[in-house]
Structures are given as C-alpha cells and as structure tokens.
Design goal:
About 35% of the residues lie in helices and about 25% in strands. The protein has about 425 residues and is an alpha+beta fold. Helix 9 packs antiparallel against helix 10, helix 10 crosses helix 11 and helix 11 packs across helix 14. The longest helix has about 35 residues. The chain is globular and about 70 Å long.
Amino acid sequence: MTARDAEVIVVGGGPAGAATAFFLARAGLDVLVLDRAHFPRDKPCSEYLSPQASRILHELDVLEALERGPAAHLSGMRVVAPDGTSFEGTFGAVQGFRGFRSHGLAVRRPILDQRLLSRAREVGARVREGAQVRDVVRDNGRIAGVTVAIEERVTTLRAPLIVGADGLRSIVARRTGLGAHGRWPRRLALVTHFAGVSHEREIGEMHVFRGGYLGIAPVGGGLTNVALVVPAGRRDEIRGASAEFVERTIALHPAIAARLAGSGRASPVRAVGPFNWRARVACAPGVALVGDAADFFDPFTGEGMYAAMRGAELLTPYAWEAARATSLGTHLVALQAYDRCRRNEFAGKWAIERLIGAAVASPRLMNLAAASLARQPALAHTLVGVTGDFVPTSEVLSARYILRLLAGAIPRGNRKAPVDKPLAVAR
C-alpha cells in the first residue's frame, strides 16, 4: 500500500479551503491544507458575506468575533442603473422569509481568512503555508496526490482525496481538465479600498454604467471596498496602470465621482479575473472541487464567499466517504453524489446569475429592470433576499415574479387599458 501524508489534502486556505478543512477535521479525518501564501494576506474580493453566510460562520464558531469588527453590517443593496434610475432592496423587509441575520457582513479578507484558518487548525487540521502546488499526481487512472514546492524543495504528498479549493485560477481544476472559462461574459475586477467615503447607513451599492459596474461597500475600520468590473478585453489598457485606470473610470462617471468625492485610495489596486469559470463536473477519481475552483460567474450578486463555504459544507459527508472508501467504486459513488448535490443546490443561482449578467451587459435592459424594481419595492426586496441566500431562487424564477417585473417596466401612462372584445357567435 502506498504511504499517504493525509486522508485529505486541501489545496487552498481561503474560505472554501478553510471551511472544508474545518468540517472534515471535525468529522475525524486527517486533513492537510496547502497554500502558497503566508497568512494573513490580502486578496482582491468584494469582502461581502450574505445574511445566510452568517449561519455557516456561526457553525464555524467565528461569527461573534467577526461581528465585533472591524466589520460592517450591510442592511441591503442599492443598485443604480446607467440612466440614474435606482432601486433598493432590504434584507429585513422581505415578506415571508427570514435570514439567519437581517444583515450581511463585510469583513476584510486578511481578517476573515486568518480567523477561518485558525479555526481549522483548532479542530485538528494541519496547515502548511508557503506551499505552492504545481501539479497533481496520477496513479492507476486516479488522482493520488500533488507535487508541491516548499521552501524551494519540490516534493510529492499523497492522499486518497485531493480537494481543489484554490480559487479562480485553480491548479487542481486545470491540471485535471475539469473546468474551463465560458465565452460570455468575460469580465475582470480591479479592487481597492478608499478611506473617507461617507455612508449615511451601511448598505452595499452597485453603480452600473455602459461597459461595466462599480461596487461600493463599507468594510469597517473607516475603509470602503471599491471594486470596478469591466470587460476582460480591456486588459491591455489596465496592465501596468491599474490605479490610473480606476481613477480615470471614476472620473468619467460624474455620479460615481460625486459619491467618492472627498475620499482617497488607501490600498493598492489588485486585479482578479477573467470570470465565468465553471467546472463541467466538480469531481473525478481522487479529486473534488469546491468554491471558486468549481464555479465563478460574476461578482455582481456578491455570493462568492457564501457559495464557497456552503459548498464545503455540502462536500463534507461525501468527502468523508470518498477518503475512507475501500474500493474505487465506492469512492466514485460518493464523489458523484457530491456533484449532483452541488448542482441541485446551485442550479437556481446559476440561472439568476446569467439573467443578471445579461441585464448588466445591456444598458437598456438594466434601465428597464431598475425602473420596474423601483416602482415595486416588494420585488426588489425579494431579489435582494435571493442574493442574500435566504429566499429560494424559485421566488424570482417563477412566472408570477417575471410577469410582474415585465409589467412594471412599462410606465403607467403608456399602459393600454384592456379593450372588451365582442363575443364570437357560433355559426
């Protein structure tokens, strides 16, 4: 029998990897986490956790500490369309549904990641920082380990299960051929922090303009997360001048410039993307994907960190079975069950992401949608509740919701009154 270095090797120590390590180590497995970074480390991210993400943070026993701050409690989301029309959805105003918290949480990634990884260690997971995974190891048709560079020494580490939780540029997903970038929409983000932004109340903002959008959200400690998302085709304009590109884009949009007036950039501009990455399947013999390594569409809805931690939670029982399986058949059955579970959980989210992506890409469509949601606050609250992960996606994907949204896009003065038709006479 080939010697193993752990029962599960988790590649990546971010929210997906740390949560996976926590749940599996708590379940009694020998877990080893590998990450090329040294924590705490910064990372380009919207730094937002939905109301329902708080349930998982509570399960991880980090919620209370994170809520004490520095952090921001976001009550909802305000969206501004290209023509200036805006609507607002509030988590606490959704009728018939209640989240684990009535607010979302915005936390700097160095704080969040360090705390999550510490919790994984506390329940028994081993963590190796400064460990760069370079490839996967194959043995008799299955993934059996990884090659990793630690302090300039390359070695092989083996385990019955490798979990790829290494983000959008996942080496595990790429080396196993499980995923690929979609053709549309191809966007990338430039993320920084501003100091001195005024906030009358703690709420997230999305300002949509022709060719992209910009998110603004307080994250505590006097800082505001500012994330600019543009088509990936503009990469050449950005390369080597990302800060100038952000400042120039803000200046080109008077409403955004006015919103950030009197503030200044307080951290480097970091780039991430292109987005729209999805695995065809999230598993193969010896490997499973979780978090952005398995799926990343667009950060507009701000659900990335919830999906990462929820995916870890879903993976746990199947990973446990796969790691301790005594036959390849049993191992595969467990991993395939995880993939089905993941698809069932997130299929509605993927559909909504694509609908929102289409609206963001079309100024006319975005203007009409914003006008309708501004006229019908209940629909706006429901949509924000879905992106807050506590309202079922079926509430927005239903024919009733869509018809109301379409009807609300027509100004009242332009709506035609129904005309009574004469009864047809049978001959």
